[in-house]
Every structure is written in C-alpha cells, then in structure tokens.
Design a protein that fits this description.
heterotrimer; A mainly alpha (115); B alpha+beta (237); C mainly alpha (115); A: 115 residues; mainly alpha; 3 helical TM bundles of succinate and fumarate reductases; B: 237 residues; 2 domains; two-stranded antiparallel sheet
C-alpha cells in the first residue's frame, strides 16, 4: 500500500514539491528563453519585436511567476545543499523559513519594479 | 466517554476496512484498541506486538494515514472526532490484516552492510572511544533505532524506487561508518553508494518527521552522501 | 550505469548547483534592475554586446545549467515513470548537449548579434 497526503503533510515535503515543480517548469522554460534571446541574431529589431509582445499584462504576470520559481528553486536548493553538506540537527526548519522568505522577497522586488 | 469508531484493514494486498466500536478509556493506546478488537470483537484479526513499551519495535502500523508505533501512541493524540483508521505499514507486502512481511526491510540492512566487522579478539584490550569525539557523537545520534520500520513505511523514495535501501538501513550503516573499531568502512561505503543507496534520498524528511525515537535518518544519510563522494573522489572505493 | 558514475553524477549536480546559486543571484539582481524602465533590445544589447565579462558569465551559467538540469530530469523520470537504464542515460546526455548548444547560441546572439 502507498502513502497519501496525510503522511506527507509537513513543511519539508511541501518544500520538496515546490523544488521539483519549479525545477521541471524552469527546465521547460529554458529552451523558450534561449530562443527569445537568440532573436538578437536577426538584429535588434527582431528582439524588440519579441520584447513588445512581453508588454502584455498576462505575459508580465507569467514572468513574475517565473522569477518566483527561479528564486524558490535557488533558495530551496541552497537549503538542500546546507542540509546535505553541513552538520545539522535543530536548525533545518529555520532554513526552510529563510528559503521561503528569500523567494517571496525576490518575486515581490521583481513585480514592484516591473509595474 | 463516547465509543471509538475504528476502521481496521482486513485482508492482504487486496482487502478493505472493517468498522468496529471500541469503548473509549483513559490513557488508552492504539495498541490497546487493536487488542480489544481482537479479544472482544473478532479473534481472527492478525497483528503483531511484543513488549508494549516501545522497545521491541514490532507493533508499528499506519494510524490515520501516518506510520506510528502503536504501543506508545495515545488515542487522545491521534483520534480526531473519536475516529481511528488502522492499516498495516506501507511499502511492505501485507501478510494478513495488520501484519506485514518485513523480510525486505531487514534484508536491506544486510545489503547496507549493517553488521559490525571488528579486528580484535577477546584477548585484546578494550578500544577506548571518547564520548566527546565527533564520531562517537554521530553514533549516539543514530544508535537508538529499534527497527520498527516506521521510517521505511513513511519514505516516498522507497515507494518510487524498490531497490532503495531506506532510512533505517542507511542510518545503521552511518553509525557503523563512524564506529572507529569497525574495519569494513570501504565495503560499506560502496554498498550504500548510488541510486539505490544514500544518493537517492531527496531530504523529504518523512523519516525524521515520523521516527518514534526522534532520530534523524536524513542527517545520517547526508553524512553518507558526503563520505561516499569523498571516498569516490579519493579512489578509496 | 556503474555505482561510481552515479556518485559522480550526484556530485556534479551539487557542484553545478553551487555555481548556479551564484549565477542566479546575479541574474535575479540584473533582472530586477533591468526591468525598472522597461526592457528593450537597446538596453539588453547595450549591456552585453562585446562585453567579455558578461560573455564569460553567461557561458558559465549555461554550462552549469546544462549539467544541473539533465541530472535532475533523469532522477524525476526514473522515479515517476519507473524508467531507468541505458536509454534514460542517453536521453540525459542528449538533453544536456542540446541545452548547452541552444544556450550558447543565445549567449552569442546577445554578445555579437543585433548589429
């Protein structure tokens, strides 16, 4: 038999889900990101054409989501590196709170500068 | 006090929950509830226990979805609205009702080289190990495991990768890696390396969250990850 | 894959994660700074074109991500689809190489393109 959410409902597991989801989504987004920057090969005008498309509110909203994913994957990843490479006992839950805080701050800073 | 409504798993891998009414008592444990059902309601109910005081590690089950030792889990702590759902441990084949086949669990201890290998005989002097040494402290942190299988049952990596050695076996290996008297360090590090060993751990901390003895197999597994990587890079294994 | 290779793969993902953590901090700060007055090709290319420092930085960034992402995806596919072995290892290599090449195309585009 397998476990269900009742067994998994604790902060470290949520952190795992965020890390895995953000990792997969970022990996899927990367080829698009590289394609967009590659537009510059056809000249600045081509790149500008793409950047104008990103001015739409919905795209801006998605961009903020991506920044949040990137920040969360980085902060959560640093937490994992600390847990794997440093001696630890009691401070692992503090690390989780710090990681969540850092990602939110990065996402918010981006959003506030964007609009 | 109101009666408890208890749903208990009946059957093997295939089966279903059967409901029983059990009188609520003060200081009642989940194991008391299961024993009541077996003695008063249905003597064919199969379950395992021995010491009843949290030493032997044989009475672990899944209580309201979470792996627990039942002898030291008070009903008052887990039964919301007087309801209990009691099932066998996860990630292990069910023999009957609440009894699992724990062979795979213990075989993995052997595969992780969980047996002490020394070089001394009874004619030699005792080894002196300072309680203050880093190694001894690491051993202390993991040595109280009672082999109940709660961590193995709670671990999702075990579910996703049948060959994964699991938290208990790796925790055992970590205590031996830090035992300065042990002579099988390199073989043990090789045995716990890679995708079926310590490096498969995702630091979900399910084991650490559920261990009834308050141990952190995750911390020991992290230690193994570092030790195995260092031994691999230095060519020791 | 031999146990030794698996351990080295795990190590490579952690080392690349450490490099990525630094790169992502720089990337986040740059992004938050860059979007303040809206993105334009002139703004992006003005920063990157002919700049050896940015070229080196983005090359390192792409290299680290081309190591990091495929190893993570390999683990996820192994666990979620229960597919392991030679075929998966080949796919991992292909994903890594594609990311590296596609990413370097983008780096060259913003370094030398848009003229």
């Amino acid at each position: 038999m397998k476990n269900d959410f009742r067994s998994r409902n604790h902060p470290a597991y949520w952190a795992f889900i965020v890390h895995r989801l953000s990792g997969v989504l970022l990996a899927l987004f990367l080829p698009l990101h590289f394609w967009a920057l590659g537009q510059a090969l056809q000249g600045a005008a081509a790149l500008d054409g793409f950047l104008r498309w990103t001015e739409q509110p919905l795209v801006k909203f998605a961009e903020t989501g991506l920044v949040l994913l990137l920040a969360a994957h980085m902060a959560g990843g640093l937490r994992l590196l600390a847990l794997e490479f440093l001696e630890w006992r009691e401070w692992q839950k503090t690390l989780l709170a710090i990681a969540a805080g850092v990602s939110l701050v990065a996402g918010l800073a981006f959003l506030l500068n964007l609009v | 006090m109101e009666n408890l409504k208890v749903r208990i798993w009946r059957g093997a891998e295939e089966g279903g929950f059967q409901e029983f009414e059990v009188p609520r008592q003060e200081s009642q444990t989940v194991l008391d509830v299961v024993t009541y059902v077996q003695r008063k309601c249905d003597p064919t109910l199969a379950y395992r226990f021995a010491c009843r005081v949290g030493v032997c590690g044989s009475c672990a089950m899944t209580v309201n979805g979470q792996s627990r030792w039942t002898c030291r889990t008070h009903v008052s702590k887990v039964a919301a609205d007087n309801r209990l759902e009691i099932a066998p441990l996860r990630n292990l084949p069910v023999v009957k009702d609440l009894v699992t086949d724990m062979r795979e669990f213990f075989d993995k201890w052997a595969r992780a080289r969980g047996r002490f290998t020394g070089s001394k005989t009874r004619k030699d002097e005792f080894e002196r190990v300072s309680p203050e040494s880093k190694e001894r402290k690491r051993v202390d942190a993991g040595i109280e495991c009672i082999g109940c299988g709660v961590c193995y049952s709670a671990c999702d990596v075990v579910t996703w990768n049948k060959d994964y050695l699991g938290p208990a076996a790796l925790n055992r290996a970590w205590t031996l890696v830090n035992d300065v008297r042990d002579t099988a360090r390199a073989e043990r590090l090789a045995a716990v390396a890679g995708d079926a060993g310590c490096h498969a751990c995702h630091t979900h901390l399910n084991c650490t969250e559920r261990c009834p003895k308050g141990l952190s197999p995750t911390a020991g597994i992290a230690g193994l990850k570092r030790a195995v990587l260092a031994a691999t890079l230095s060519g020791e294994i | 894959m031999s146990r030794r290779s698996e351990v080295l793969l795990w190590g490579a993902q952690r080392i690349s994660a450490m490099v990525l953590a630094l790169c992502v901090v720089v990337h986040l700060v740059t992004m938050i700074y860059a979007v303040r007055s809206g993105l334009s090709a002139a703004e992006i290319l003005g920063r990157t074109q002919g700049s050896v420092a940015w070229f080196a930085f983005y090359t390192l960034f792409v290299a680290a991500v081309a190591v990091h992402a495929p190893i993570g995806l390999r683990t996820i596919i192994g666990e979620m689809c229960n597919w392991r072995g030679r075929g998966l290892d080949v796919l991992t290599g292909i994903i890594g190489l594609s990311l590296a090449m596609w990413g370097m195309r983008a780096v060259f585009a913003v370094f030398g393109g848009g003229a």
